[in-house]
TrEMBL record:
UniProt source species: Elizabethkingia miricola
Protein name per UniProt: Uncharacterized protein
Organism classification: Bacteria, Pseudomonadati, Bacteroidota, Flavobacteriia, Flavobacteriales
Amino acid sequence: MKLILNIFFIFYLVFKPLMPVLDYAVNYNYISEELCINKNNPKLHCNGKCYLEKELAKNAQDDAQSSKTKNQGQKISDLCLPVEISEIQTGYYILTIRDKNIYKENYHYLFLKHIFRPPVF
């Protein structure tokens, strides 16, 4: 059940910006004949694109306002810190290293000088 709800929620978030375009495609005749601003001017060949543009602008404005309110909430939550977190305890700790050689040499090779000699003429 959780999986189905998660998938539905993801589809909603992904396709939410496309809802005005889908509405325009489904109700194309009604929008182009009734809701179009330029229906008296057929030379512009608007066919309801003005209505679609207004709906997309309104959708973008709603998204901008919702993101703005989200950011304001985040700023408020950043300022409200518990007392335990806001009191920073400073202390001096000296770290001692047992092994002075921290870096171990793990690279080994076998140098075979006598095998790779050029021929002598």
